[in-house]
Amino acid sequence: xxxxxxxxxxxxxxxxxxxxxxxxxxxxxxxxxxxxxxxxxxxxxxxxxxxxxxxxxxxxxxxxxxxxxxxxxxxxxxxxxxxxxxxxxxxxxxxxxxxxxxxxxxxxxxxxxxxxxxxxxxxxxxxxxxxxxxxxxxxxxxxxxxxxxxxxxxxxxxxxxxxxxxxxxxxxxxxxxxxxxxxxxxxxxxxxxxxxxxxxxxxxxxxxxxxxxxxxxxxxxxxxxxxxxxxxxxxxxxxxxxxxxxxxxxxxxxxxxxxxxxxxxxxxxxxxxxxxxxxxxxxxxxxxxxxxxxxxxxxxxxxxx
Length: 305
Fold this sequence. Notes:
Largest sheet: 8 strands, mixed
Number of helices: 14
Radius of gyration: 23 Å
Helix content: 40-55%
Mean pLDDT: 95
Strand order of the largest sheet: 3-2-1-4-5-6-7-8
Distance between the termini: 48 Å
Strand content: 5-15%
Shape: elongated
């Protein structure tokens, strides 16, 4: 496998729905030459023509993005191919077989699947060592996070190349293992399921539930992840909350061993310097001060929108 980590010369995006257009625009703005293809005749071409000249053309007037008549044309000579077709297992299988048959051996091929395990898709890609998942979030050219999902067969250098390209394009990639839904959608669907239960039980309206989420823990999650927030709140506090929820709502809220073992050792989080993460003395007070300042700035920003 070619180990170069420079920008891709040519990136092909297959599928020009909302997600595909965002992916193409991301790499176009990052300096890649981009090809797009869509199975609906004329759709890709119409979108390309709709782009402003400053995006579509180089400084000397050259074309930086074009539509390809077929997936094979898009794949030919590409350094990176991203499949962003419908979330249909059979459709993806056909597309991946065509793409991998016409791509060069050192071309990185990625699926933007939202839920299919990469290990399930890999058999449809010739040379599966150059195949992985790159899961963007809509709009793909705006949301900073992206999941990079290697399969069991994926060459580590392919992961490194994909991560380097994404980082250079301004993304914040995180590598996660192949599994159904990966991480973000597993968490998002778990939250949504509990939201539905709260509404179905008559505890709250959908509108008020959205207010609770967006103005409380959802507000904090835009700046800190769940483990950082738990450490700052106190793992002993979390264990107490779990006990109340378990008593009232059932064993699905039983505190897991990974939490109980930490609290048993007195690892309560930021206030003692050890929780899921370790914090030195100065960092403990500095983190709280920085956290509160960030929250205040975010609150003021949102109020001005």
